[in-house]
Amino acid sequence: GVDWGFSAPNTVVYFFVDKRDNVYVVRCDGMTYISQPTWIHHLKTKYNNMYRCQLYVPDAADQGAIQEMQKSGLPVANQMDKGAINTGIQVIKKFLKTPGSTEPKMFLAKETTQHLVNEFGMYHYKTDAAGLITDDPDTEYDHWIDAIRYPLTLLFGKSTIILGG
After folding, report:
1. What average pLDDT values come out for the chain (165 residues) when binned by 10 residues?
2. For the residues of the chain, what is the DSSP string, one character each?
3. Rounded to whole angstroms, how far apart are CA atoms 139 and 160?
4. Among candidates 78, 8, 16, which has minimal Cα distance to 39?
5. Cα separation of 122 and 15, whole Å?
6. Rg value, the chain, Cα
7. How far is CA 87 from CA 98, 133, 149, in A?
8. Angle (CA) 116 44 68, round 5°
9. What are residue 30's DSSP bridge partners?
10. pLDDT of the residue at 164
């Protein structure tokens, strides 16, 4: 998954899914103050072959950046519908704590996913003027969470997946 940024980081999260739908997050990376073409080049030259990435799922809000990824030869899901944030949050929660089980279905490589671990610890919902928690997530610390939310929502938040141009 890829989340775009500039002063906030451009981020990427690489993960694998096994036959039992366990998610293994193996790498998080991010860079600030670089152009999208530079970020895309970084992904292609540093990680794409290393992880044999089958599909990148970027933030669909920037179709120009998605076209840049496609032009560079990276396999990209080009979904026009960004999807509901709260749906994606529920998908992630399902993997962190599986209902009816004490075991999670998401596993993080400690050495290479610290940014994501840190964001999980800081993630929260906004409060209103009365101090009550709202249904709106605070988006200040969600860059790596967004990068994993996009592909997990695509893969597990819908009943049908259509891949292709």
Report:
1. 94 96 96 95 94 94 92 86 76 84 89 94 90 88 93 80 54
2. -EE--SSSPEEEEEEEE-TT--EEEEEEEEESS--HHHHHHHIIIIIIHHHT-S-B-B-TT-HHHHHHHHHTT--B---S----HHHHHHHHHHHHS-TT-SS-SEEE-TTT-HHHHHHHHH--EEE-TTS-EEEEEP-TT-HHHHHHHHHHHHHHSSS------
3. 28
4. 8
5. 21
6. 16
7. 16, 18, 9
8. 100
9. 11
10. 57
User: Quick one: pLDDT at residue 120?
Assistant: 92
**Concatenated DSSP letters of 30-58:** EESS--HHHHHHHIIIIIIHHHT-S-B-B
The backbone torsions φ and ψ at residue 50, rounded to the nearest 5 degrees and listed phi first, read -60, -45
- The type of residue at 52 is R
The answer to whether the predicted template modeling score (pTM) of the entire model surpasses 0.70 is yes
Q: CB–CB of 44/21 below 8 Å?
A: no
Is residue 23 within 8 Å of residue 105, measured between CB atoms? Answer: yes
